[in-house]
Fold:
Amino acid sequence: MQLLPIEVGVYVKFCQKLFLRYEKSVSPALVERLYECFQGITWYLQLSMNEAVTMAERGGCVLTSAVLTFQ
Structure:
């Protein structure tokens, strides 16, 4: 049995909701770029999003420019 990747739009909303829980935000473009880089593989996306939410200050936003550290 194989799990298929979560659709990118669903994943973007999921990430935004979790960032809001910590009074932070994330650029949809960043989530989409990471999704593309990691081909929707959840483990890599979760690891990256965990790092992004940790890096963001309360009230701050993680933007697409943060992707440069992942390339």
Summary: The longest helix spans residues 8-21. The two ends are 31 Å apart (CA to CA). The CA atoms of residues 12 and 31 lie 6 Å apart. The helical segments are 8-21, 28-37, 42-55.
